[in-house]
Structure formats: C-alpha cells, structure tokens
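ZP: hey, is the heme C complex queued? I don't see it on the tracker
AM: it wasn't, my bad. submitting now with these inputs:
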Amino acid sequence: MPAIVSEWLNILLRWTHLIAAIMWVGDSLLFMWMDSHLEPPSRPREGDVSGELWMVHSGGFYELVKRKTLAPGELPKTLHWFKWQSYTTWLSGAALLAVVYWFGGHAWLLDNAVSSLTVGQAVALSAGSLVAGWLVYDALWMSPLAKKPALAGLVSFALLVATIYGFTHAFSARAAFLQTGAFLATIMAANVWRRIVPAQTQMLAATRAGQKADATLGARAKQRSTHNHYMTFPVVFCMLSNHFPSMYGHAQPALVLTLFVVFGAAFKYWMNFRGRTPLLVQGAGALALLALVGLTASPAKRGGVGVGGATSGMGVVSFETTRGILERRCWTCHSAHPTNPSFPEPPAGVRLDDPERVLALAERIRVRVVETKTMPLGNLTGITEEERDTLGAWIAQGAKGSKTDWR
Ligand code: HEC
C-alpha cells in the first residue's frame, strides 16, 4: 500500500474510532453514574419506577425517571437506543488493527526476540483470538457457573491473564498490548450485539404484546453491561500504551499489563462506589498501582541484563562509533529521506543522521534502544546486543560529541 494512502486511512480511521469510543465509553460512564445516583421518587410517579434524578446542564434542568417496565399503552413514539456507538467503535477499531498491524507487516506486529511466527501466522492468531475470546467468554457466562459471579469472574480473570501471557510471547510487546485491548473490546462489542440489544428488543416486543418480559434476559443484559463497564479503563490503557515504551517495553510486559487491568477495574469500581468500596477491591487496586510504579521505575532491561552491567567495562566510546551504529541500524527510517518504504518521512519526526539531533535525543535513544529495546522497530535492522551496549556506554559516559566529529 503506498505510504500516503495508508497515512490517510490511518488518520480517518483513528479519528472515527476515537470519536465513537468517546461516545460509547461516555454513555457507559453516564448511565452507570445515573443508576448509582437514582433517588426514591420525591412525589408520586406513574408506573414501575426505580428512582428519579435531577440534573442541571446545557442551560436547563433535566428531570429523569427510571422505569423498570412500561405498560403496553405507554410506549413512546420515539425511544432512543445506544448501540451504534459501540458498533462503530468496534468496526473502525478492527479496520485500524488491520491497517496498522496486519498490513504494516513485520515491523509493528512481530519481534524476532519474542517469537519466530511469520506475518501470516501472526495475523491469523490476532484475528482468530478475537473470535475465540468471545466464544469462550460467552460460553462461560452462559454456563451454570454464571450463577456464581465471583467464581466466574475469577475464572475469567485467570483466562485473561493466560491470554495476555500468550500474546506477549507471540507478538511484539507493543502489538501484544494493543491486541489485548482489541480482545477485550471485541468481547464488549459482542456483548452489546449478541446479548444486550437482543434482551432489550425482547423486552420491547413483550411490552408491545402486553406480556411480561423474560427477566433472565434482562438480568443477563445488566450483567454483561456491568462487565463492559469495568473493561473500559483497562481497554483505554491498552490503546494508549503504545506511546509509553516504559510500559510495553518492560522486561515483564505481561505482568505490567495484568497489574494495570487490576488497577483500572478497581479504580472504576471506586469511582462508582467511593466509600462503599470493599477493602479487598481498594487494596488490590492500590497494591497493583504501587507494584506497577515500582516495576517500571526499576532499570531492569529486556533480556535480563541490568543497565550499566555490560556498559561499565567498556572503554571510551567515540561519537564516530555511535554514528556507525546509527547509520547501520536506524537511518533506514530515521533520516531526512528514509529508504524504508513504509516511512516517507522520518517516524515521529526523529532524524538520527543529524549529529545535533542525536546529541539532543541521547536520553530517548537510551530508553528506546538500551533499556526497553523497543527500537529499532521490530528489530528490522538486526541490531546486536553489543551494539546496544555500545550506545548505552556512550550515553553513560555523558553522550559527548560535537557536530564536527561526523565527517
Ligand atoms: C523500521 C523503522 C525504524 C527503525 C529501523 C528505527 N526506528 Fe525509531 N521509530 C520508528 C517509529 C515508527 C517510531 C514512532 C513510534 C514509536 O515511538 O514507537 C520511532 C520512534 C523513535 C524515537 C522517538 C520516540 C521516543 O520514544 O522518544 C526514537 C528516539 C527512536 N525511534 C530511536 C531509534 C533508534 C536509536 C534507532 C536505531 C537503533 C531506531 N529508532 C530505529 C521506526 C524505526
């Protein structure tokens, strides 16, 4: 695909995806908030009322009454549904996954240090696991186990951790984080499509026919929408994680991601219930956050070598030596005119064929190449451990040099 076409597809899809996701997650947060702030009716109200709520916004007052059911004659002419936000988010997200990771090929999806999958195998695994994830999750929550939500929740969490572990051992860590987000978001969208919307359709049909709606469908829909709600914060983290190599580039990416899932869900719970949050949830969330901060602050680098360990024994590394490594391993992408066809412009605007830029970027080079080993992208240019350590030594020695050193 010509780079400019993929750039346009990318920006249009990302823009659509973000806007749809804001609407979907925003709805989820607002409805959950409204449910948790309903008060008993302040005056007699018609029908099967579960509560009322007053709000001020947009230059006026909103008086909201929630009813569990409606009598047949009471069906309004216009009834608003909330489903396209979810479908649009999923469809644009799936397209984005395909454009960036599947058609982007090896560079984004794979890492030779992690697995030896081919691009075809990785794409099959990425797509297949989205479908399989929903089938397993749905079967679990349709089974008798769903009657014991705590146990079913624990089993679901264990399966998710195993999935995260599997992803981080198949894909590049960066892709594994995104894949986990896509995996959870697929379950969320399928919950809306296959369980929540059908339950509401059935409720509506029953109301029209003057019959009692099947309460189990309604209860299941509520259960699924609660699951969706608690998945939102972890999913948003997965989608943003690509900007933070200290997260996905950590030596233990599966652990980092698992801890964030725990923290994200616990934090959402606390936002909903504040002082009524069980100690177990508060403790788990706080511990996960502390562990996460501790883990990412520790300078362990991927591959197990401590920073400084391999670099301290080295002699003085010249700026000229550094140049050689950058030329061999980075310039195909990070130069004024990249030769890598995927990048018509130097990615992230980073040019490493200019000595002044290299001197200014030394700290980022250390983080990306030595500490998190997230550059070169997918190690497409085959940088060696020794070269990483040489760059690390040059930076540890003060990243010394001047533009006249490069001839
Ligand atoms: C195959 C192309 C490719 C190669 C080769 C490559 N990079 Fe990158 N680099 C990228 C892309 C794409 C981004 C933007 C996305 C990102 O930040 O992960 C990037 C971003 C960066 C950034 C800026 C982001 C930040 O975190 O500050 C730095 C610094 C960087 N690369 C350093 C290097 C160094 C040093 C090398 C060589 C050892 C290298 N890259 C090799 C593709 C490449």
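AM: back. Residues 107, 245, 329-330, 332-334, 340, 347-348, 350, 352, 361, 364-365, 368-369, 375-377, 380-381, 383 surround heme C (CB under 6 Å).
ZP: great, adding it to the tracker
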